[in-house]
Amino acid sequence: MVVITSIEWVPGLRTSGGDYAWLMIIPPLVLCNTYQLLILHRLTEKK
């Protein structure tokens, strides 16, 4: 999760516009982390 979150932050932090930065950071970051949390139980499932 840390690697994907870091990858998502880089484009958003490198922008110069404030509104564009929030648009590039918040929605993709929330969606990506939500997806990762939803599949976490499948990845850590004991068989």
Automatic annotation (TrEMBL):
Any one Gene Ontology BP term: positive regulation of sporulation resulting in formation of a cellular spore
Keyword annotations of the record: Membrane, Transmembrane, Transmembrane helix
Spans through the membrane: 20-40
Tree of life domain: Bacteria
Entry keyword annotation includes Transmembrane helix: yes
Keyword Membrane: yes
Protein name, per record: KinB signaling pathway activation protein
